[in-house]
Design goal:
Elements: E1 2-5, H1 10-22, E2 29-32, H2 36-44, E3 56-59, E4 62-65, H3 66-77, H4 92-104, H5 106-110
Parallel strand pairs: 1-2
Antiparallel strand pairs: 1-3, 3-4
Length: about 130
């Protein structure tokens, strides 16, 4: 599974740090939307960096975005994070617009780095760029 994320977004970086701490099986790899691999994956999903309002999860041939990506990721982490699957009960017409609102305002609310964050040295092998 590949998580494509914005390395300049403090919220996104916090999410990746959370995943690195809790992904004990090493299920996830990571690609920056600012990097070559991330750009390629976005292009394959017909997405553009400009105005991007989603986390992207590539799971083999499947592509997940928005809250679907979050629930898939948390489910793959196992117990207790798998409990987040209860969120599937909330209709997508409610949860995804809320997600996009947060994503659209992520820099304003959580902050932005001027440069792309570098992965921790002990996890560098799990990053594609």
């Amino acid at each position: 599974m590949i998580v494509v994320f914005d390395t300049q977004c403090l919220l996104c970086n916090g999410w990746v740090k959370f995943l690195l701490r809790h992904d004990r099986k090493g299920v996830f790899r990571y690609a920056s939307i600012q990097g070559t691999a991330g750009q390629t994956l976005l292009s394959q999903a017909n997405l553009k960096v400009e105005g991007l309002e989603t986390l992207l999860l590539i799971d083999g041939p499947r592509i997940w975005q928005h809250t679907g990506a979050i629930f898939r990721v948390l489910g793959a982490l196992g117990w207790p994070w798998r409990l987040a699957w209860i969120g599937w009960l909330v209709p997508v017409q409610v949860r995804d617009p809320l997600y996009r609102l947060l994503a659209r305002n992520r820099y304003r609310v959580f902050g932005r780095l001027d440069e792309c964050a570098m992965p921790p040295a002990d996890y560098k092998v799990r990053f594609l760029d």
